[in-house]
Amino acid sequence: MINALKPLGGGAFGSVYKAIDPVTCEPVAVKVLDPSSCSNQKNFAFRLQQEVTMQEMCCPHPNVCQLRQVSTTASSSAIIMDFSDTTLRHVRDLVLSEEELRCVMSQLLLGVHHIHSLGIIHRDINPRNILLDHAGTVRIADFGLAGRATPDMWLGDSPDRVVTENYRPPDMLIGASATE
C-alpha cells in the first residue's frame, strides 16, 4: 500500500500526490482519480482504462512518464507513476540559458514525436503536464485525454479536443475547423 505524503497538484479528474514506494523506497507520483468527475461509473471506468492504455503504449521512453502500477478500490482509483521534481509550469519564472532551453525543447519534441509515431495524440500538452527531474530529464505526463489518431478526428468543430484553452491552436480559438 502506498500512502500519499504531499499534494502536488490537481485537475478536473483528480489530484496528484508525492508518495514513497514501500518496496523500492523511491518517490513516486500518485494520481488519485475522482469517480464523481464522470457522469457515471461506466464512463469513469472507460476514462481510467483509456488513460492507462495510452500511457502504457507510450512506455518505455525516456521522455514519457513511466506508469508503474494501477490501484483500484470500490471508492477510488490511483495511477502510480515515476516521480519528477517539478513541472515546466513551476520553472517558467527561472531564466534558462539558450542551451538549457534547447535541451528542454529537444526532449519535449522527442517525447511528442514518439507518442505521435505510435498513432497517439496527447491532446493536453501544457506546462503542468511537462515534468522535469533533478537531472534535467523532461517527461510528458497525464494521458487522461490522449487517444488514437484517426483520419477523421479533426473534421468538424470540436474545440474541446484540447482542454487547456491557452494551449489550443489559433484556428480552434477563433472557431474555424481544421479543414477551412
Automatic annotation (TrEMBL):
ATP binds at residue 31. Pfam families: Pkinase. Residues 2-180 form the Protein kinase domain. The keyword Repressor does not apply. One of its GO terms (molecular function) is protein serine/threonine kinase activity. PROSITE patterns: PROTEIN_KINASE_ATP, PROTEIN_KINASE_DOM. One of its GO terms (cellular component) is nucleus. Keywords: ATP-binding, Kinase, Nucleotide-binding, Transferase. InterPro entries: CDK (IPR050108), Kinase-like_dom_sf (IPR011009), Prot_kinase_dom (IPR000719), Protein_kinase_ATP_BS (IPR017441). Signal peptide: none annotated. This is Cyclin-dependent kinase 7.
